Amino acid sequence: MTDKTGTGRGVKGGNQSPPLMEKIVALCKRRGFIFQSSEIYGGINGFWDYGPVGAELKKNIRDCWWNDMVRGRDDVVGIETSIIMHPKVWEASGHVGGFTDPMVDCKSSKQRFRADEIYFSPVIVDSKIVGYVSILETERTTEDLQEKAEALKRKKAIQGKLEPVQPRDFTQATPDEVPLVPSPATGEPGSLTPARNFNMMFETHVGALREESEKTYLRPETAQGMFADFKAVLDTGRVKIPFGIAQIGKSFRNEITPRNFIFRSREFEQMEMEFFISDEDDWEKWHRYWIDWCRHWLHSIGLSASLLSEYNHPKEKLAFYSKGTTDIMFHYPFGVQELWGIAARGCYDLSQHAKFSGVPLEYFDEEKKRKYVPHVIEPAVGVDRIMLAVLCSAYDEETTTDEKGQTETRVVMRFAPRIAPIKIAVFPLLRNKPPLIEKAREVFKLLQPHFTTEWDDRGNIGKRYRYQDEQGTPWCATIDFETLGEKGPELQDTVTLRDRDTMKQERVKIADLVPLISQKLRG
Ligand code: GAP
């Protein structure tokens, strides 16, 4: 098994690309998981395309969530709302006024940064400021800044006692300090602009003529669709508090610094669920319930529990209406980062939409004969972020020895079978023997209606196994001369079934393949 820590996990973040991440990005391109969008035109930053196996993997993640979150429960319904909504939605939600990130430009390099990702400190020797150092946030920001301070003291050949650095992010720089802080791009002071707020919503116009049209936005989250449709769903009469409304769909954010592959993109997909509870309910109980549900679900799609942790947002950093937010964190190769946020949002969203639309968004409790605005617990996650976590968790390298005693490194994506893009690959032993091809086609046609099945007749069997290991195919079935009955009747109509993880091969009757694989998939 790979020592994942040794191949890049836990190394500092920032702009450094750890080896494990580079290997995963290369594999994604090589095997058709993920491509840079519009690559033939030089690409476009923050946008990604999903190739043949990537699209399958992503669809499986979505389907698993939808099955477990919506179809498998009797207290959650699923909807699909439009990407472009009435512009007032975004005023009510607070996005027009406050969905901003602090932005800084470097006038020399023309690079743009998020101000809260630049950390700086004065360099103080014998109680005197002798300069400033800066760095893009890393997993060990303080230590890295201290090293930079020591280097500056050495460079300036200043004698005396260097004091410990006092890191602050650039949003906290005073107007006097702004010109003194070095740009992370050039290392020189004087080129950074003061931080200014940048609204991350993509604007667009509805209607044929731009002048006459109304300005609106591509949605930055799917959640507001659930709030805006709350009354419509309630009026269908299918739901009773406590209940949830869920959806999966694209969201768009004009991120200042999209980075870390698909971790932070400008176009991404969210899976969100708004769970409405009574204003008298124990919100903490429901909050914990949904955190545990999300962790359990991540485990069910194969994410190792050892790579997950929880982060509770400090009370003083929460929005005024928020009762509590917990993030499920994943140990990505570039650091421990937010994967899934579970927020207790009180009755803020429904109250805001009632205020801005003039339509009361209340619930009538038949038993207690009482009207109230429901409170909400919101588990919100990005499909792309889960996909990256799945890719990182599944990546493995194994040293194997062949019959000739030669060792080689086997790269294998150990996806949980339920989300593996291809469930089974079918190989005719040789591509130039028509009876083998004919029989293999029969097997392929038998499996295809039940599982995502791939046909592969290129190269030797060993190479085909390596290829399938890299795309994480749990099983491969080879049709050989035994299958044709050429080595005796007892093996006729059997195939060799090879297991990705154990590499063990067993002889299985063709007629048993569908029930056997179905059983293995049920786990
Ligand atoms: N409705 C609440 C909401 O949208 P958020 O924390 O801004 O909350 C929820 O986003 C989840 O969406 C995040 O935990 C993350 O998984 C995903 N996400 C957010 N911004 C993203 C981006 N730029 N690229 C990829 N995924 C993103």
Could you please describe the fold and organization of this structure?
By secondary structure, the chain is an alpha+beta fold. The chain contains 13 helices and 26 strands. It has helices at residues 19-30, 52-71, 87-92, 95-98, 141-155, 223-228, 230-235, 283-300, 348-357, 383-394, 434-447, 461-470, 513-522, and strands spanning 34-36, 48-50, 76-78, 100-105, 112-114, 118-125, 128-136, 168-169, 196-199, 203-206, 214-217, 243-252, 267-277, 308-312, 324-332, 335-346, 363-365, 370-372, 375-382, 395-401, 407-413, 424-428, 453-455, 475-479, 494-499, 505-509. A seven-stranded mixed sheet has the order 3-12-13-19-16-15-14. Strand 15 and strand 16 form a beta hairpin. The radius of gyration is 28 Å and the shape is globular. The model is unreliable at 1-18 (pLDDT under 50). The site of glycyl-adenosine-5'-phosphate (GAP) has 19 residues, from strand 13, strand 16, strand 19 and helix 10. Residues 221, 223, 253, 255, 264-265, 268, 270, 272, 338-341, 378, 380-382, 384-385 line the site of glycyl-adenosine-5'-phosphate.
In short:
This protein has 523 residues and is an alpha+beta fold. Helix content is 27%, strand content 28%.
How would a crystallographer describe the biggest sheet?
7 strands, mixed
Q: If helices are DSSP runs of H or I spanning 4 or more residues, what is the number of helices?
A: 13
Ligands bound to this protein structure: glycyl-adenosine-5'-phosphate
Q: Estimate the global geometry from the Cα principal axes.
A: globular
Terminal Cα span: 22 Å
Computed Rg: 28 Å
Low-confidence stretches: 1-18
As a percent range, the share of strand residues is: 25-35%
How many strands in all?
A: 26
Major β-sheet strand ordering: 3-12-13-19-16-15-14
Q: What is the helical fraction, as a range of percent?
A: 25-40%
Return the structural class: alpha+beta
